[in-house]
Amino acid sequence: MPPAAPASAPDAESATFADLGLGAHVLKALHEIGYESPSAIQAATIPTLLAGRDVVGLAQTGTGKTAAFALPIIDRLDLSQKTPQALVLAPTRELALQVCEAFEKYAGHLKSVHVLPVYGGQGYGVQLSALRRGVHIVVGTPGRIIDHLEKGTLDLSELKYLVLDEADEMLKMGFAEDVETILAETPATKQVALFSATMPAAIRRMATQYLNDPAEIIVKGKTQTSSKTSQRYLVVQWQQKMDALTRILEVENFDGMIVFGRTKIVTEEIAEKLRARGYSAAAINGDIAQPQREKTVNQLKSGKLDILVATDVAARGLDVERISHVVNFDIPTDAESYVHRIGRTGRAGRTGDAISFVTPRERGLVKMIERATRQDLTEMTLPSVDEVNVTRLNRFDDRITAALGEADRVEAFRDIVAHYVRHHDVPEVDVAAALAIVAQGETPLLLEPEPEPVRQPRRDRDERPDRGDRFERAGRPERSERRAPREGFATYRIAVGRRQRVEPRQIVGALANEGGLRRDDFGAIDIKPDFSLVELPANLSRDTLDRLADTRISGQLIDLRPDTGRPQRRRFDDDRAPRRFDDRKPRSSARRDD
């Protein structure tokens, strides 16, 4: 079936939400939220969905596509129906939670609208209880949705609306078969909206097969990154990155900041070192429980926290207004990750700053990002000692000025200082200097001047714990003979192989999504006929192992377990699933209710 012609829509420049056909309760919620006019994707998509037509939307992240599909769904909900009416599939749990929050916000003036996030890593008990009570909208990741369908706990027989959000990402992460399985379980009469940043052949085929005469809506931007965001990079040796970050924090006038690291370990180390240097910083990554993550993000929003140190997956979907700066402590190895990262600042018309640390061997990544985003990155120099000292003196002056504004307290201390001067015959300026020493404490106010830059000896290779080429190595099958995993890693066996037609990218995508892992958490991947061997960090937490045990690839439970180097016979009957981690080791009584 040839693609449908792009749909006509109201002029986004002059349209209002009231022009799009939305009901009064939705318009009231939008007014209270502060939405004034629809974005281009919203102006084109909302009337089309309200008219009952399927949609294929091509738009980058940050264009407002969540509201484009959420508002029409809320507008047409039947609150008397207790089985799910709408299902939104998202590639990651972070995006699923973001979409849920948006639905709840837009439904603020509708009573008893129940929205349920469904994703790996959350206990089944919470989800099962909500499904039994009845929900109107389900937002979830494909793997956990498949689990519920197989358990018979999710009823999609009366589904009216299905949304595939960031469909290209789901395919990249190996969810194509899961998505098609879910589509086959839904009524043929449902309305479908598919959103993607790109239109590869697989997405085009899916749209042709599962959508009914869809309207194709394309929103193009001049660049992939916001023109409101200043983009700079600093060439720095790996060993100097922490000192460079500290100097940048000293001279940059930032409000809130996200610092991106490639691995969970790096994020925790950066946050710890920043706290030791007096900054309010916290890390979020795949090991952080969801309640703690939400608490940390709320602290960033309220100003109780100034610096968030995060991995890509953990920060996906974050939209905190006070984020003025993004620092790529580790520059990403692909342009898409770079765009997502710096998209955390410079949003909704605000200005922002993005600074990337680049080792000498990573200069090529800067050129790659410039070509992909069609924007130049400006090289910056490390702030000098003089610049840092000027900033410190200015802040010290500001503290004095603020204190002088408290007239009553100044008057009281003036008498105390005068008393000291009379009895000790010391000039007032010396007393003021002594009081400054007391206030400053042991930390010097000014840095010592550096006659010459301190250079680290050049090494043959960057001695970094998170080499950027690990992901490339992870995608290449190793030689057939067994070898010991590299230091800090262990070899795990999963129950899918060449016969299931799995590829390394599917394994990486599925395990990263369900277990909160990152690319540098993967070592070698060796795909055998009936199973695969994957190198993962040896210190994976029990919670992560439990989440990974529930993971499916191409619809099959992977049965993740440590590899013993010996053939393992999977003992299960014809219709029984293979044993999981929790079948081999009793769970503590404090475990979640699954």
Number of strands: 20
CATH fold assignment of the largest domain: Rossmann fold
Q: pLDDT below 50 for ≥5 consecutive residues: which ranges?
A: 1-10, 452-456, 458-481, 569-594
Count of domain modules: 4
Strand content: 5-15%
Across the major sheet, the strand order is 3-4-2-5-6-1-7
Q: How does the overall form come out from the CA principal axes?
A: globular
Span between termini: 44 Å
Query: Rg, please?
Result: 27 Å
- Name given to the CATH architecture of the largest domain: 3-Layer(aba) Sandwich
Helix content: 25-40%
Largest sheet data: 7 strands, parallel
CATH superfamily of the largest domain: P-loop containing nucleotide triphosphate hydrolases
CATH class of the largest domain: Alpha Beta
Query: How many individual helices?
Result: 22
Describe this structure in a few short sentences.
Its EC number is 3.6.4.13. By secondary structure, this protein is α/β, with parallel strands linked by helices.
